[in-house]
Structure formats: structure tokens, C-alpha cells
Amino acid sequence: MYSDTKRDLENLGNGLWAWVQGDGSWGWSNSGLITGEDGQSLVVDTLFTGKLTEDMLEAYRRADPAAAQIDILVNTHSNGDHTFGNHLVGDARIIASEAAREEMEERPASFFKAAAADPAAYGVFGNFLHNYMGKTFDFSDIEHTPPTEVFKGSKTLTVGGRRVELTELGPAHTRGDIIVYLPDSKVCYTGDLVFHGGHPIMWAGPVGNWIAACDHILGLDADIIVPGHGAITDKSAVQGLRDYFAHILAETKKCYEAGLSWEEAAFEVGYANFDSWLDRERVVANVATIYRELSGGKVNPMQEDVLRHMLRYSAGAKCPHDEACGCGKAH
């Protein structure tokens, strides 16, 4: 099932590694390995399935003897493509933000496993999972393994004598996003606060927090950015993401002030400068989250409605209405 997707281990130097999966589209997330001189090791995120995570861990073990035993696992946020392989790290300390652990408990691996096995029984979510991920990933080997340690704000670790800084910058993508920064190597593992080459998806927001997170990362003394999805990059991708959010915020405000519904705005906001980015349907979720913020919570789209319109958007719908709506737009 996974043989056609390129998965590469990239040596960042100085005992740091990145595992990069495919083009970074739905479910194809990245991970990192940090090692110290005394043989200690830290992994940044597991992957969407047990098989994918085991392949990654085996690559780490081949590359660096310190990976024979993982001492610490850091989950950058709650999403399953960064956590569903947690059970394969054995006795490691598993660290995340407090908000991330809360989110993991709300929709655990067992829910995804059941929805993937019987999509029709899970309504819109089952349809969404099947269309975007269920055809690609085998969820039969995932398990719910939550963090054993949580924090708020910031936390500093020492791995083999080197300083590893964890900083909570969410809520943005999810409620509990953190980054992992190594000052000695000028490397930052961002989790899904950075998507490279694909549209980000703002499940939590507010958008101002994500823009502030970009500013924080841009302010770091970092030459290498390991995004949550997409190719390893530098700060130019972070700046591009910041520009993206500034753009959709401005365009969504225009729609809101013009009296458009959030559904109409989601199909109206233009993305000419980002046509080359993957997964354009995520604009629907991003606009919905911004409408929630602009309205002070008065407009609060249900997740199933957001998912339904994302499915329609990716299928080529030009507006949020039925095909015979008579709105005058091409369907």
C-alpha cells in the first residue's frame, strides 16, 4: 500500500535527522530524530500507521546507533498522522502540550480504526476519511498511546548534553501545537505549524495565533525548517505561509463584511498566488474558522458541515449550493 510513496531519511548533520514522506498531502507527515553524544535519542512525532512508523524507526536504527532505544518522544500536536504510531516507542517518555493530550482523548485511534473499517456507519466523517485517507492508509495496526508528560508554555529538555527547546504556539492548526528547536544546530521541527507546498488547515485557530507562530519561527536563529508536511526548507516557506494567512484573512473579512455566509465565502476567496499548492479544499475549513472568529462565535460551523463542503470543493463544486440552486454560477 505504501510502496509507491517516496519516503526518505535526510541527514541534517550534527546527530539530527528528518524522515520525509512523499509530497506531504493528507496523512503524509514528517518526523525527526535527535541524538546526543551519550547515545540518548529523541523522536519528533510518529506516523499515521504502525507499519509506516516501524519503517521509519528501522531507518533511524540503521542510520544512528542511538536510535536502538528511543528515550523521548515529542508529539507536536494531537493529529493521528503524528501520533498513531506512539505505541511503537516502547518505554519512552512521551511529551506533548496539555491541550494536545486533551484532543487526543477526544478522538482516539480506535475511532479512526472503526471509521476506516466501516465508513458508511460514520456519516460525513467516514466519507471524508475514506476519500482523503482511507484509500491510502491501513489503520488496522494503530493504537491509542497518549503522552505521559504534558506542559503549558515552554519546556527545555537535555538530550545527550544538547539543549532542546519545546515551545507551545497554539492554538492554531490544533489546540496544542508546539515546535521543537535546537539552538546549537539552528534546526526547528515545526510540526503542522508549517506546511510546505500544501495548503495548511486551521482546525482550531484563531488565525492571528498562526500568524504570530510564523513570526516566532521567523525570529528564531534557524537555518533549517523541518515542516510537518512537505520538503525540508528554510524560513522562506514560513514567510510564504504567513503571507498565505494574511491573504485569506483579508479576503475573508471582505466576504464577511459584504454579508456572505461562511459557505459562500469559502467558495469565493481567491487563491491565484497559491494555485501550485496541494489540497486546496482546506480553504473551506480555514474560512469557516475565520468566520467563527470574526463573528465572535455567532457563526460556528459544525465540523460535519465543514467536511461536507470540503468534499464538494475537491469534487469541483463552484458554490456551496446544490447543482440546481439557480445561483448563476457554473457547476
Provide a descriptive summary of the structure in words.
This protein has helices at about 50-65, 100-105, 110-115, 125-135, 205-220, 235-255, 260-270, 280-295, 305-315; strands spanning about 5-15, 15-20, 30-35, 40-45, 70-75, 95, 150, 155-160, 160-170, 180, 185-195, 225-230. It is an alpha/beta fold and about 325 residues long. It has two domains: about 5-235, Ribonuclease Z/Hydroxyacylglutathione hydrolase-like (Metallo-beta-lactamase, Chain A), CATH 3.60.15.10; about 245-315, no CATH class. The chain has a seven-stranded mixed beta sheet with strand order 1-2-3-4-5-6-7. Helix 4 (about 125-135) packs across helix 9 (about 305-315), helix 6 crosses helix 8 and helix 8 (about 280-295) runs antiparallel to helix 9. The longest helix has 23 residues, at about 235-255. The protein is globular, with a radius of gyration of 20 Å. The two termini are about 35 Å apart. The model is unreliable at about 325-330 (pLDDT under 50).
Main attributes?
5-stranded mixed sheet, 331 residues, 2 domains, Metallo-beta-lactamase, Chain A, globular, 12 strands, alpha/beta
Mean pLDDT: 93
Order of strands across the main sheet: 1-2-3-4-5-6-7
Number of domains: 2
Order of helices and strands: EEEEHEEHHHEEEEEHEHHHH
Q: Kindly state the number of beta strands.
A: 12
Tell me the structural class.
Answer: alpha/beta
CATH architecture of the largest domain: 4-Layer Sandwich
The CATH topology of the largest domain is Metallo-beta-lactamase, Chain A
User: What's the alpha carbon Rg, rounded to whole Å?
Assistant: 20 Å
Q: What is the helix content? A: 25-40%
